[in-house]
Records
---
Amino acid sequence: MKIIVIGSGIVGASTAYHLARKGAEVIIIDKQHEGQATAAGAGIVCPWISRVDDPDFYTLAKGGACYYPKLVSQLKVDGESNLGYGLVGALAVSTDEDELNVIEQKVRERQSETPEVGEVSRLSAEEARQLFPPLREDLQAVHVTGAARVDGRLLRDALKRGAEKHGAQSYTGVASLEIKNEKVVGAYVNNEFISADFVVIAAGAWAPELLGPLGIDTPVEPQRGQIVHLHLPDQDTSKWPVILPQSSHYLVSFEDSRVVVGATRETGSGFDYRVTAAGLKDVLYEALHVAPGLSEGTLQEVRIGFRPIGKDILPYLGQIPTVKGIVIANGLGASGLTMGPYVGSLAAKLAMGEELEIDITAYNPLRNCLKVN
Ligand code: FAD
């Protein structure tokens, strides 16, 4: 079975890795567009504290978080262990006890069904600062030990290398699809035609350009996120927990004395790949408001990524009835680093004609399409 995977952000890289391990002949085509979401993502893997209540969303988010340990061990067997993945835990922080009570109750409900949530406890402001020293002095916390963080770039590259070790071939360039008699027969890249039995489209926010010529007016659009990397010289940040204030902002720490703070959510941004004055101000204001101890950090880098967002909160995953041989995996929005590796494993099963362990009806890729010819 010869399968082309278009896009090698987290979704495509994971799909390719799983396909190659199953013995498929895999071709990866990726343009490496500026603003690839995976290259900018913060890397929080914590569906346990999410305020999104949709059960179909939670199925993929929980599935994603629970899948990580298995994937990490598989990659290790393939000689890939530098992923920036760590089960560092998370602190939901607030000054409002009632707010923390609601969070604690929700997390405990999830814990009763899913042991991967880990331990749940309440911390005083002082206890919280022992785990994350830059934190403001009046913030108490709900501590959840089963939260993780991952470096999206490292994981993406490890999955791609892993796929290549199992025989996958990689091309750099823009892919376009070739359809004959309502079936995909391959793709063009750099004027070369590559035949295939199946194509998985994991093209993130750029998917509409690819699917438009098939008469599919896909409703995915880019949502810009600006995110700041701070360096804290001589600080061991490797075990600091993820900090989740009661807003869309957050703080995530990595091994190399680095704290990542973000991010803007700029719906309607288009592919405008720029750091803006307002974006940078918002991100730094929110971060220093929650963790004033970061104010002496060195501003190391600002990353920009385009989250692929659909018309609703649910991803798009599945085949399309109008053209045979295509699987779409897209629209993972703000949770793609959590769900992406798992969604990639499901996309690989779909392409290979294997049975899935979950019902994917709710993720029908054509459910919000404005037009399907
Ligand atoms: P992408 O990573 O965007 O990859 C798509 C790839 O397809 C690109 O490389 C592109 O070049 C390629 N492509 C497109 N069209 C073509 C074509 N025609 N031919 C060849 N190649 C093509 N998620 C979390 O779970 N936790 C977080 O903490 C988190 N934080 C985030 C913070 C920011 C600032 C951003 C921007 C995102 C964050 N996310 C987070 C979301 C997550 O990063 C995305 O949902 C996820 O990376 C999307 O992956 P993807 O593979 O679908 O798309």
---
Amino acid sequence: MSLTDLIYAGSNAVAGLTEGAVNDAIEKYGESHAVGYPDTAYFLPIIYAATGVKIKTLGDLPAAVGILKSLITNKDDLGEALNAGLATAVGAEIIEAIRYLDGDPYAEDAGIGFVSDPIIRSLGVPLVTGDIPGIAVLLGESADPKTLAAIVKDYQEKGLLTFMVGNIIEQASEAGVKMGLDYRVIPLGHEVTSVIHVVSVAIRTALIFGAVEPGKLADFLAYTKERVPAFVNTFGPIDEVVVAVGAGAIALGFPVIADVEVPEVPGALMTQADHSKTVETSLESRDIKIKVTKIDVPVSVAAAFEGERVRKDTMFAEFGGNKTPAWELVTTGDLAELEDHKITVIGPDIDDAMFEDGKTVRLPLGILVEVAGKEMQKDFETVLERRIHYFMNYIDGAMHVGQRNTVWIRLTKEAYEKGFRLKHIGEVLYAKMRADFDNVVDKCQVTIYTKKEDVEEIYEERVKPIYVQRDDRMSALTDESVEEFYTCLLCQSFAPSHVCIITPERLGLCGAVSWLDAKATKQLDPSGPNQPVVKGQAIDERLGIWASVNEAVATNSQGAVEKVTLYSILEDPMTSCGCFECICGIMPEANGVVIVNREFSDVSPVGMTFGELASMTGGGVQTPGFMGHGRQLIGSKKFMSAEGGLERIVWMPKELKDDVAERLNKAVKEMTGIENFADMVCDETIAIESEAVLEFLESKGHPALAMDPIM
Ligand code: SF4
Ligand code: NI
Ligand code: NI
């Protein structure tokens, strides 16, 4: 059979299955029964994107099946056949949605099935920073599980996000691959139709970050091809259905690399039978370049291990976390005096330490990183110091929580058994500091203290005074006290018309870029994503309008956005890309705003979930009344200050409220004299229904109720 014949055979088979499934479902549940995926604001996302149709009930499906069938022309033309591939995707999306009618079909499966909107949003930053350099989709059953596992581990070490479909899931798992979102290896499911959940991720990337208009299929295909760096690897023999699915991938711009003979289509469909070359061929097919730093330690060090938690039963050693004193500090030393790559451990290491309860080693810990360089500035110390958290978490077998003198570090037995010791922490920090900050760090030395008296004494004499100094400097940093703001254009790779403006009192909406970060990035990468915007005279101080800011936004968004205010959510609010940590929206009856964070999945008092609120904005679109922002902004005196500021906050999920309470209380107290403002803010443990929320606010005398009408 020719390639087009194969594609049509597969797509016709799927069309038939889809039609059958739709008819059966309607018979069983009736036409008015709801159909959809959990935690998304985009209905059946692929159908919504391709046609603009919002599928809500089973009765909406037969028309979609009609469209699907019309896409399968059976004409002997590759372009037409690729459309049949898209039809297969639509069919798979419908079949999978129907599987969700009886509850989560993945509850008993190793796969996770549908990927929710909040997860996709959380992937925005690592994708734009190149922390996740690409997306691998693996499918099938391998004749050789060992090499399969080697391929997956290789992607993992390179930081790629890997999705798996089919029996390769068990094969890789049995061969020791660590799996789960935390490890960037995501099992989707066993049925071939579950591959649709990764297609859905690609399509929603365009909806969420690109603000591509539903119904404009060609725009979606251009977006995924240009901006979503994905590819497909198939393992084992492939049947027509896999070929048809593969054709859908190719239509999206994702090359397919098979390990069996296939009719090759240059740049789109190819064979790589040698598994030792699969990774290389795949990365080349999407022009994905990987920057690796070789570090001399006995365990893997890769961004993919960032999310791993070390639990009690796998833990070998523990530091800090209120059990022992611990701190970390990056400070600038003298260029002439520092010795580059000098790593010293002073005190007991983890193997010669006392076993306190026969199992776990607990030690005090002080990590002193001294750097020096001609371009190094004091202001960059905190930027480097915050990276310790990430660098330590990259270690397979290490968990790092907190910062400064609240750090909490755990190491696993597995890492210990592989030979990991404290000096290796020094090696990792050294290598990453030199690699990531090469423009400012010419020399770096690391000293690790584990004797209680050292850790405590050095803290009092050297470390604490530096923290205090920095805090003073930080609180003096206001929008008024600096000459320049910064742009952040990182997210333009996904959201081409979005520009973040970063000020001392307003960090990037992803929460990852502060004004100091932006300043340091400018130094490290002069033509990079953070460029200074010299403020000049404000046009309107209350709303936060500057001609310089408007100009920077207009230029960098290619004219898509011409005006933004920095302090208002009603008048030309700052745009969003889509990866914001929180979104706030107006609750008119409470005369204030609710804020919902990405982790909260229930409905908020405005009747919308985070995902639904989030879908109101994004992709550089301005939607007055809705604004994406970072957690840190809750506690900034500039938070919608044009509309009355922090006092307008009437509701937040409890976890978020607890997280920001200290800073929020402090800022509100300084501005209004109100004590413990966070206690006046409602949360889901108190009330979600509008009336009950209002009752609570009244009982607390919440200030928003007495303010000018918000709209
Ligand atoms: Fe994206 Fe803005 Fe964060 Fe930069 S600051 S990475 S543009 S969200
Ligand atoms: Ni880790
Ligand atoms: Ni973003």
---
Amino acid sequence: SVARACDRAVAGSGMTSSRTRERLAQRLLAAGLQDDAVIEVLRQLPRHLFIEEALASRAYEDSSLPIGWGQTISQPYMVARMTQALFEAGPVQTVLEIGTGSGYQTAVLAALARRVYSVERISALQARAEQRLRALKQRNVRLRHDDGSAGWAEYAPFDGILVTAAASGIPRQLAEQLAPGGRMVLPINHGGGQVLVRLIKNPAGRRPNYQHELLEPVTFVPLLGGIA
Ligand code: SAM
């Protein structure tokens, strides 16, 4: 299980105590997150293994941190918030993530869904995330180095799609890869800032095809085209 893999990794690292991680879990609860399963995954997952050693002492702060190539590992609150938004609207078996980054959000999703597919456009980040997830024995994850704006048609449709970089609008190809009743959580540019959106694809035959809600203001790196 992910819990056992995490315990092994944590025991081997000597970098974190369960008390530090418990403090993070308490902070997430205080911030209004309510999904026990999501909080439990963040309580167990060794976030320090997803960042460079020089920053490891800050791993359990509720903040985003640099991971190189101008990118960041997302703030734990935001990882939990997006995961909760994805899972609270009904069962999710298969998830597509766009923007693997460090692989931390990927590992959270892998603990909750049956299969996770994740695409990252920066080759070096993709390779590191792959190593980390392999070390955590996360076998239900498939990673790919590519521009994720077009999704991953081979494995579509997905019950859930989570995008960890901000697009100018809802990417049409991603919306098309949602299963009926499936949902996508993503930051989009909105009124000079960004907002987190949940898009739900209605069951077949029901109009409109999609409905969406604005969840809260956010700050993400941009969704870029092409690979690096
Ligand atoms: N969840 C990740 C984490 O916690 O480490 C977040 C990483 S960062 C906020 C967003 C990631 O999206 C970056 O690694 C960036 O390279 C990637 N990205 C941006 N545009 C992309 C695209 N079109 N396809 C795939 N990945 C993309």
